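Why predict the complex rather than its parts? Because the way molecules touch one another can change local conformation, and only a joint prediction can capture that. The input here totals 1080 residues.
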Amino acid sequence: MNSVATTFCAAKPEQPISVSEDIDALLEELLEDDYSNSPQPKTEPFPKGPKTEKLLWSHSGGRKCCPVFIGGSSVTNGVGTATSKRSCDQLRCTSCDFQVLMFDDSEWDVSCDYLFLRYKDLHVFQLENPTRVIEWTSEKTVCVAGYSSPRNEILELRLPLKLFADENKGLCAERDFKVVHGGFTEGPVRHLRHVPGSRCAVTNDGRSSDLQVWDLGGDDSDVIRRAGSVEGRSVSDTGSRIAARLSAPPQVLHGARSSDVQLTQLTSGQTLCKLDTDSAELLSSLQFVSDSVFLASCCNGCIYVADTRTSAAPQRSTPPPRSGDSVCWWSDASIASQLSSTRIVRLSSSGDMVVTDLRNLGGIVSQAQLDVQTHPCQLEDVSVSWSPVLDGCIAVSGFDGVVQIYNTRLWRTELQDAQPLFQHCGHMVLSEQTAGSAPIVVTSHLWHPERPRMLLSAASDGSVHVWDWVEPETTGDL
Amino acid sequence: MPEIKVTPLGAGQDVGRSCILVSIGGKNIMLDCGMHMGYNDDRRFPDFSYVTQNGRLTDFLDCVIISHFHLDHCGALPYMSEMVGYDGPIYMTHPTKAICPILLEDFRKITVDKKGETNFFTSQMIKDCMKKVVPLNLHQTVQVDDELEIKAYYAGHVLGAAMVQIKVGSESVVYTGDYNMTPDRHLGAAWIDKCRPDILISESTYATTIRDSKRCRERDFLKKVHESIERGGKVLIPVFALGRAQELCILLETFWERMNLKAPIYFSTGLTEKANHYYKLFITWTNQKIRKTFVQRNMFEFKHIKAFDRSYADNPGPMVVFATPGMLHAGQSLQIFKKWAGNEKNMVIMPGYCVQGTIGHKILNGQRKLEMEGRATLDVKLQVEYMSFSAHADAKGIMQLIRMAEPRNMLLVHGEAAKMEFLKGKIEQEFNCYMPANGETAMVTTNPSVPVDMSLNLLKREMALGGPLPDPKKPRTMHGTLIMKENSLKLVSSEQALKELGLNEHQLRFTCRVQLQDPHSDPDTLHRVYTHLKSVLKGYTIQHLPDGTVMVESIVIKVSSSAEDVNAKVLLLSWSYQVQQSPTYLFFRRFRPRFGIFFGNV
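Output of the joint prediction:
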């Protein structure tokens, strides 16, 4: 049982796996195909005779890979150097020192749960209808809402108590989502923001710039009620982006285009301030970076930085250099105690990722190229977000069924290929959808504000996962 | 209007002591008869005085149906049948019938022998009660009496759990008991056909819950067991003899097999045989995979799980032991627990609910020092893990079942009342939804179809009158007499009805007097009327009869003069009931004013 077998997917490189996790992996795989007499999965963890012979061991004579590359069977094996990229064929397990075996042209069977690896916690839920929004409404509750039918549900869910039990975690059996509040919406919900410090949420249906205001309900009732609406400034078919900040009475910043962004007080409907721009670019997001400074990011890659306290013209940054006309951009700003240390990441539909400084939006702090297979029609689900705790980490989702975590601190100012620090493929692997139906796309992800590696993610099949990943051990010195 | 009444005596806006009274088509049925595990006073059993203040329940109940063997669904049965008094039939499935008395006896032992309670049912009472049980098969329609029939459907949840359809005439109610919509390793998923009941009474334990996937639960369980085994610890899993234990056994067995683990797994003696015996006996109640592979290999004959002997507990090295009872209140599980509690390498995994006062309950509440008999204290150093594996339908599952059965109304029980407003609203988008509290009655008016026999003569006559046979989808009016005799309804022609009932036929005629001024003699006036009508009512048969009457079709007109005024003539009209409804009458009525005008002008 001590020999560690690792195979690699043909397409995506994976990190080596330590022994205890591997057991876990095998186990998950094994449990799934049960006691039926189904044929053995394609990957046989314990290689039998002929397979081992296929392995090619290069005799490198004491040379070491630097840096270490790991790849699939499309990559030549050997000693990797900065100039000749070869995937290392001398991998050994870091905890048992046994050799890592490789099998050409094999990949893990879909039923194999090797992606269960490296999670501290993993909870998998299935909503009745998929959601495109996940938003914290308190420390332990999130709000989700459907978009797929004419009438949808908006739900406030309490996360499993087990996740938050620090002492005697074993004694807490509560590992389910609890629907604490629920309501019905008359249309799809494309965007949702909880107004901090209130029991109020604001949604947009993605078809007009009007906003719906919801009372999330208190302890006495489990019903979410419609509390009003806010009229948008323009007719738009893409829907308004919404941002909210801690304020009393509650206010929201909203708009569909850079020309119609405004701050509205929810109770009175009074417009408190407007973004003063000439152009009417489609917005990809609105975000407060401090109490008064906010960003209006446009789909073409421009970012406006404005202050709600002044009526001065906003500062506009040009799109990053590589953006063509057909390219769409998403962005996110890191939340920092000081505005000066706020970083902004911009991600394009062709996989360019550019990190810039808030003070110098034209300059590039670091950048990388993501390997994205773009489905042109699926881009509305793309989202990129900074980890609120892990410095320099970002999560990217929406291109396919995977949530990827990148460490931007490893990037430099020159363009390079980005390797994910961690990938959550669970939505694809655990999906119950049959072959032939539309591929699973991650519709949303959300970092936990305090727990460094805990994320929630939702996919187009209605699945919602809560996962607390473990940073893979560095593969550096073998 | 006929009504179906549903009154929960237990489990109304509450979990525990399920007991629901249903009154349908004049029949009274009790669904489940459970006890509340959390109480040891009056609240433990349902309040049967609701049914009758004094005397036995037999006269008031047509039958009792038990959905499955969990004590919150059958725990009050001996109390009800033997102590309150009920001699009618008690229906339950074969596995429930087999397992229920074992659990009842087990619980009786804890309550009476351990806690020293009196005023509890005895072993003999359990036996006497079980004699009244009539077993049910899945999908078999059982005729309780001439009108009341019941049918059981598979509910998953535990071995032998059933949903029942209760039907009187065209009215029906489905009671789900506890059910599970996702299959597990040893049981299948609940299933029901599109029976469109008037009321679907559903449990709602997890109605506001979105459950974590089974895979994640199992992964955590195996991870915990494996971790403990790896560090050389011993794992104790206190279980109930039957229920989730088998699920966990299959899980561990598969795990051991595939991982090639060598640490022994033991199962309390007695239990193995008993459980295996039942599962072999009731293999049809497990899931399809187990049934299919049964011929080659019985899933419940474990390769790695062996019978436990009390001496094994002191063996060195890691091991896993499944032991009864599940709440660590007595017996083997408690003995082993005492032995292993002092070593922090060891672990106890509690897979289910524990009643207050038991050691299981104490350690789940984090108690680390236990007082044992004889003033000794026990330091709990081993790791305590609580993992719930109960198989209930969650919000999604409930909606799935609703769509399967397509009920007209929904009634939720076995769930907490507070904070279910949203779910109720959700269901009410499609159905009426009721959530009565204990002792509260939900009433649903039904619209049952009443079959009526029609005489062939009448049918033929109607066919002759109204053309071809009526479209079965459309209502059609017809004339006839409805005779209700004994329990049958008959529609016959009026003649036949008269004959059958020995009644004379009565003729109904309508009369009318019209006063006019006319100086002519009576016969002359009549003749003038005759000629006038003849000219006005063309196409009608108008006769001047020799007896001094004019007949327009069947309407008779006579003339008489008043005694005081010779010029004042009274026109007497008379027509039968049939005419009143015929077109002639309508025509005649239309012309009546003209008579006046005509004669007025004379």
